[in-house]
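Please review this one:
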Amino acid sequence: MHAPAAHEDGLPPAQRRRAVASVLLVIGISVLLAAQVNVALPGIARDLAAEPATAVWIVNAYQLAVVATLLPFAALGDRVGHRRVFLAGTAVFGLASAACALAPSLPVLIAARLAQGLGGAAAMSVQPALLRFSYPHAQLGRAIGNTAMVVAISTAAGPSVAAAVLAVADWPWMFAANLPLALLGLALAAPSLPRDAATRSALGGRFDALAAALNAAAFGLVFVGLYGLAARPVLGLLALCGGIAAGVALVRREHGAPAPLLPLDLLRVRVIGLAVSASVCNFAAQMMAFIALPFLLQHDLGRDQVETGLLITPWAIAVAVMAPLAGRLSDRFSTATLCAIGGALTAVGLALLAAMPRTVGVAGFIALVALCGVGFGLFQTPNNRAMLGAAPRARSGGAGGLQGTARLSGQTLGSTLVALTFLAAPQVAPAAALAFGAAFGLAGGGVSLARRRHGRDGERG
């Protein structure tokens, strides 16, 4: 059965529902798993006899693979077909999930997570383009909103789902459960997604393999170098310098390109650049909290894995409540102000959790975690709106790619800094990581305020 062709009015309704369901299912399980692993991390480290600083690479390997290859896979999809890249990525993600579940040692698990990240990056990179060709043009905003909702809910619900799984099974089942879901996504996607020939970019051109390699080197070496500064300073500094050099070379190569792999044209728009910077800061704060809180609860406060997931769940509930409310508020008030308030609330919650986790009690702990979620929910939706609203309509896809890259860059930066903290000060690492997260949340709010002088936050009609 051939996949239907895309046209100006999108796919026929029944086929569109199947296509959209497949895309959102795969994106949802990839984001959900990333959030689940944080809760199980202390238990995985214990079962595999790994130190916390080493076990964090179970998270880092996935994040690094995604952030280093997201933009190259998006460019590859423009050349060889978004459908092909999505199907291949989903298959790799599912097979790597099975490999994670069967991993007998930490090195094997980290390698499987790296492969899983490559599959997740391929699927996520072409998701905006597939939805664009599946929906009628008049419903493109709905497509973007649905995706943002799935990503937000999946990220926030990870701790709760992890608690439910770990209450009845061991951690390998968190990974194993993704294989049948990935197969379901493939079964829905293969006959439903738009044909490759119809979804290829009108810009054409050959895939720039050198630019893709420079992009992967820039992101990968910078984050590996940051981690290595504490363990092996000389090698870390060399890797960091190599990453910066690769980034400079990438910018030079991409300058003036008609279809740049790195969307430099959008980054030059001040409002978008500031929104990207704020997003990196706040997602770094979120990831530092999601990794540090399980270690704080299980190692310092004596809670088990199920209790840990439940105690982090208020973050998810608060985000779910605040995200739609923040969207309505951003229709009436400055998104810069809303983002600044959100960043400040997140910072306050993390700072208090870092300062007095033993004295606040269960109710106080839940209240502070919920405060962090309120702040993050208040930040995320208006900031995404500012990023998309300031971009020309013709560059909506590039702006969506920047959203994903900023989110993943922030999360990778956060997980890397947590690993550094465990290396430098293992006795106080969870509290110190939360304090650093508070600083990043405050920085994201401060960056957001710089957008206020751009009128309606720079939005285009």
The radius of gyration is 21 Å. Residues 13-47 form the longest helix (35 residues). The chain has two domains: 7-194, 263-461.
